[in-house]
Design a protein that fits this description.
By secondary structure, the protein is of the alpha/beta class. The chain has ten helices and ten strands. The chain folds into three domains: about 1-50 and about 90-110, no CATH class; about 125-185, no CATH class; about 190-360, von Willebrand factor, type A domain (Rossmann fold). Helices cover about 35% and strands about 20% of the residues. The protein is elongated, with a radius of gyration of 30 Å.
Length: about 375
C-alpha cells in the first residue's frame, strides 16, 4: 500500500470518528440533506486540523525583496478589516463527502441497529452479469493483466529469453488472457416503504420538516439492507390520497383529521401492488395525534386486523403540536401494546429524532 493511501485511510478514520461523535447533531439538522448528491452527501465536520505548511526560522533571507522588520504586516494595515477582534478560538470546518452506504453503517453502529432479516422465503430474481471465467479472446479493457503477465513470464523462462538482471516481460498475442462473463440470476430482497403524514390544519411547517429529516435517515438505513426499495407517499386530513415526494412535504391543508382514511388507502395499496408474499413492507405514519374521536376505533381495527398481520414494521411518530391534543399515541399504547412489529415514538422537537430512529429501526425487522 502506498503511503498516500495509508494517509487517506487514516484521514477517513478521523472523519468517521468525528461523524459518530456528532451524529445526534447531524441527524437533527435538515440543511445537510439539501447537500445530497446521487450517492454522496456533504457533511460539515468540525475540529479536524487541516494539514498545512509551517515555516521555521532557519536562514537569513526569504522570497521577499527589500528592507523589512519582524512583525511588518503584508497587505492590508492592521485593523483595516470591518468589526472588532474576537476573543474565542475558531473552529476548523471541513466539508467532507460521505457515501450513503458509509453513512448507513455509521448510523447502524451508533444506534446499535441490528441487521434486518427479510421476512418470507420468496424473492424476485434479478439477472446480473458476473465475470467468472477466462478466455483467450476479448477486448483489451477486459484483459486479465496478472494472468497474462504470469503466462508471458513462464514462456520467456522456458524459452531462455528471460534475463533476471533485466527483468523485462513483454506479452505476445498468445500470452493474453481475458475475463469472460455470464448472466446469473441472484435473489433480490425487495422492500416498500410507505410514508403517511397528517397534513391537516394543526400540522405546521416545522413538524413537516421533522418528518422530512426522519424520513431521510429511515431511507438511508433501509436502502443499505435491501437490494430493491420502492417508496410511496400518502397524505391525509379528513380524506387520504397518494402523492409524489414533492407534494408530500409541501402540502398545506386546513381540514379536520381522520387517520383511518390513510390506513384504508395504505391497505388497498398493499392489496393491489405490494403483496406480502413478495415484499417486505414498512409503514411509517406521522401525525400530531389529534384525530376525530369516533375514528379511533376504525384505526385500531385496520391496524390489528389488516396492516399489522402483513407488514414487517409499523411505526407511528407523534410530532408535538401547539394545536393538537396528541391523544392518538396513548390510544395505540393502550390497545395494541405488546405487538412485536409495532413501534411508537414521541417526537416533540428535532433533537428527539435520534431517539425516534432508535425506537423505529432497533427492531431488526
Amino acid at each position: 500500500m502506498l503511503k498516500i493511501e495509508r494517509d487517506h485511510g487514516r484521514f477517513r478514520d478521523i472523519v468517521r470518528g468525528s461523524i459518530k461523535r456528532e451524529l445526534r447533531k447531524y441527524i437533527s439538522h435538515g440543511e445537510m440533506i439539501g447537500k445530497q448528491g446521487d450517492d454522496l452527501i456533504s457533511i460539515p465536520v468540525t475540529q479536524i486540523d487541516i494539514p498545512h505548511f509551517r515555516y521555521g526560522s532557519r536562514g537569513n533571507g526569504g522570497v521577499g525583496q527589500g528592507d523589512g522588520a519582524v512583525g511588518t504586516p503584508i497587505g492590508a494595515e492592521p485593523g483595516a478589516g470591518p468589526g472588532s477582534a474576537g476573543q474565542e478560538p475558531g473552529a476548523h470546518i471541513l466539508e467532507v463527502e460521505v457515501s450513503l452506504d458509509e453513512l448507513a453503517r455509521i448510523l447502524g453502529e451508533e444506534l446499535e441497529l441490528p441487521r434486518i432479516e427479510p421476512r418470507g422465503k420468496h424473492r424476485i430474481l434479478e439477472e446480473k452479469g458476473r465475470y467468472t471465467g477466462i478466455r483467450q479472446a476479448g477486448p483489451e479493457s477486459l484483459r486479465h493483466f496478472k494472468r497474462t503477465y504470469k503466462r508471458a513470464l513462464r514462456r520467456q523462462i522456458a524459452s531462455r529469453e528471460y534475463n533476471p538482471r533485466i527483468p523485462l516481460v513483454i506479452p505476445i498475442r498468445e500470452d493474453k488472457l481475458y475475463r469472460s462473463w455470464r448472466p446469473v440470476e441472484r435473489p433480490e430482497a425487495n422492500a416498500v416503504i410507505v410514508y403517511m403524514m397528517d397534513v391537516s390544519g394543526s400540522m405546521t411547517d416545522e413538524q413537516k420538516e421533522i418528518v422530512r429529516i426522519a424520513a431521510f435517515w429511515i431511507d438511508t438505513w433501509l436502502r443499505s439492507q435491501y437490494d430493491g426499495i420502492e417508496t410511496r407517499y400518502i397524505v391525509h386530513d379528513a380524506e387520504a390520497s397518494e402523492v409524489d415526494r414533492e407534494t408530500f412535504y409541501h402540502t398545506h391543508e386546513s381540514g379536520g383529521t381522520r387517520i383511518s382514511s390513510a390506513y384504508g388507502l395504505c391497505n388497498r395499496l398493499i392489496d393491489d401492488t405490494f403483496p406480502p408474499v413478495d415484499w417486505n413492507i414498512y409503514l411509517f405514519h406521522f401525525s400530531d395525534g389529534d384525530n376525530w374521536g369516533e375514528d379511533n376505533a376504525d384505526c385500531l381495527d385496520l391496524l390489528s386486523e389488516k396492516l399489522l398481520p402483513r407488514v414487517n414494521l409499523f411505526c407511528y411518530g407523534q410530532v408535538q403540536s401547539h394545536y393538537g391534543q396528541g391523544s392518538f399515541l396513548r390510544e395505540l399504547e393502550r390497545e395494541l401494546k405488546g405487538r412485536e412489529n409495532l413501534a411508537l415514538a414521541e417526537i416533540p422537537d428535532r433533537e428527539s429524532i435520534y431517539d425516534a430512529l432508535k425506537a423505529f429501526l432497533g427492531r431488526g425487522r
